[in-house]
Amino acid sequence: MAAARSLASCIFCKIIKGEIPSFKLVETELSYSFLDIGPLSKGHALVIPKDHTVKMHELPDEYLADAMPIAKKIAIAQGLENFNILQNNGRIAHQEVDHVHFHVIPKPSASDNEGLVIGWPAQKPSMDDLKAFHAELVGKLEGKL
């Protein structure tokens, strides 16, 4: 019942259905894209899969395969040389809308006044820690653990 309520109240699902107006860019059977009304820079767009899924790892692969070429088309159409593709999962990772979506954010200049501004708090793990984590992760990816 909670899933049905979240689907019914989802702003992106309402945009897809045409219940909320948008500046539509590209629509396919699986995806819908439009200009962000609170852009970080001119041309900031969103690509949203039509499947109401909260996090990317829950989204069926065919939606991912459809969304990325749309993001690419939007970047090419704008002639972007510098841009970010952003996708957040979970509140502490800055996800604000509980529906998978991808931002195409132009970065027209080095200025922090336009486009995505991020920090990169790099860590310094030991080579032994990296080696151990690598072995663990490869084992999971290969289905050995």
From TrEMBL:
GO BP, one annotated term: nucleotide metabolic process
Q: Which Pfam families match?
A: HIT
Identify the catalytic residues: 101
The UniProt annotation puts motif Histidine triad motif at 99-103
| Chain ranges of the HIT domain | 11-115
Q: Name one GO molecular function term.
A: catalytic activity
Record protein name field: HIT domain-containing protein
Species of origin: Hydnomerulius pinastri MD-312
